[in-house]
């Protein structure tokens, strides 16, 4: 697990940068833009890039051959650029330069996000991937907590400090990952037997990955992210306008969900390894369906927060096991491509869910939020049950699993 913890620094840098970006960039935008809706749209630029760039970058990294490996070149280019553009965001001189720096930062992040995540299955045997995903998500959660806690203190001193520190941490994390992870040495992926001769890369098409199992799984991922993204985005307004909570109490309540996810990230990975990723995902969907359904009837703050703790644990069951599961439904040489598809679908949900659920709230009131979230989880359950999961063929002793190519 040592190299997994070290690889987690890549995910740590991504999470801490996004957390700071989401926390403080809206303050810069509101100086120039009066409409909250426009601010919200501008803050989703990363999701629009993810729709097009991340599947393409992931697919391209599957077909990349360099002395640094398949994924590492994208980190070596993307992370320094992201560090620079993150650090200069607070030094914008107007709306144009602010948007320019935001776009350049998002482009840079898109260059290495899929390859960074794909490094985990590249360097981890199938029977260890749920544990490894739990570890790197734990690292990501710690990064987000540090960003909110330490970042707020630094922002009080000067608005540029959190972004400068995030840029420096990105460079430090790149140094750690690039020095400790060697794809030629650490990869557990055996090249396919039909790999063409040197100089010609195998073609791994996006369309070729969209078989029946993958389509149903992507549909399930979309609907559980619709529920999650909608609740995450609109919960504070729900708490304030429907439950009558203060803004502070409403936002602090959502922390119980996030912290429960971080604490349960590693145990969820171990449980997925023990009982199977498919079963843990089913458990998480059913659990969140019940939790969201119960929240509809809850007015007591303590009981609400207890339900949010349970919700965070069930979300960990889904989120920690879903990425290794979608990787396991395809061939090992298509890991980058399937990573891009995973982020494509989750980004579609992030773009569509808040405005759609916001429209439902405008029409029927805030009470509809958790009805919609529960219904979305139910649809996700229907799609996941149609997936022909491959775990029976994968549950073999570890000494029978493929090992690193010599």
TrEMBL record:
PROSITE patterns: MFS (PS50850). It comes from the Bacteria. CDD domains: MFS_SLC45_SUC (cd17313). The keyword ATP-binding does not apply. It is found in: Cell membrane. InterPro entries: MFS (IPR011701), MFS_dom (IPR020846), MFS_trans_sf (IPR036259). The chain crosses the membrane at residues 35-53, 73-89, 95-114, 135-155, 161-177, 213-231, 251-271, 278-296, 302-320, 341-361, 367-387. This is Na+/melibiose symporter. It comes from Paenibacillus macquariensis.
């Amino acid at each position: 697990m040592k190299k997994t913890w070290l690889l987690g620094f890549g995910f740590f840098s991504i999470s801490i940068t996004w957390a700071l970006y989401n926390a403080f960039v809206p303050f810069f935008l509101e100086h120039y833009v009066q409409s909250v809706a426009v601010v919200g749209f501008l803050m989703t630029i990363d999701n629009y890039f993810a729709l097009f760039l991340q599947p393409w970058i992931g697919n391209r990294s599957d077909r990349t051959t360099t002395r640094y490996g398949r994924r590492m070149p994208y980190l070596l280019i993307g992370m320094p650029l992201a560090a620079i553009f993150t650090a200069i965001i607070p030094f914008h001189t107007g709306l144009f330069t602010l948007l320019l720096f935001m776009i350049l930062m998002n482009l840079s992040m898109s260059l290495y996000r899929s390859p960074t995540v794909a490094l985990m299955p590249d360097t981890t045997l199938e029977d260890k991937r749920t544990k490894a995903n739990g570890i790197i998500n734990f690292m990501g959660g710690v990064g987000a907590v540090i960003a909110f806690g330490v970042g707020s203190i630094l922002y009080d001193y000067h608005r540029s400090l959190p972004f400068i520190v995030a840029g420096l941490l990105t460079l430090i994390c790149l140094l750690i990952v690039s020095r400790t992870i060697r794809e030629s040495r650490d990869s557990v992926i055996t090249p396919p037997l039909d790999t063409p001769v040197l100089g010609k890369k195998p073609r791994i098409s996006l369309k070729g990955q969209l078989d029946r199992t993958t389509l149903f799984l992507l549909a399930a991922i979309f609907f559980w992210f619709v529920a999650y993204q909608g609740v995450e985005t609109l919960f504070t307004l729900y708490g304030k306008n429907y439950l009558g909570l203060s803004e502070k109490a409403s936002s602090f309540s959502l922390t119980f969900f996030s912290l429960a996810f971080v604490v349960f990230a590693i145990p969820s990975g171990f449980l997925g390894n023990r009982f199977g990723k498919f079963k843990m995902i089913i458990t998480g969907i059913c659990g969140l369906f019940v939790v969201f359904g119960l929240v509809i009837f809850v007015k007591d703050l303590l009981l609400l927060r207890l339900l949010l703790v349970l919700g965070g644990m069930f979300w960990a069951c889904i989120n920690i096991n879903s990425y290794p599961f979608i990787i396991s439904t395809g061939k090992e040489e298509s890991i980058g491509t399937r990573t891009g598809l995973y982020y494509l679908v989750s980004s579609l949900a992030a773009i569509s869910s808040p405005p759609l659920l916001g429209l439902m709230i405008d029409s029927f009131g805030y009470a509809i939020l958790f009805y919609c979230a529960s219904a979305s989880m139910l649809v996700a359950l229907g799609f996941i049950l149609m997936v022909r999961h491959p775990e029976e063929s994968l549950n073999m002793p570890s000494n029978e699993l493929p090992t690193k190519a010599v």
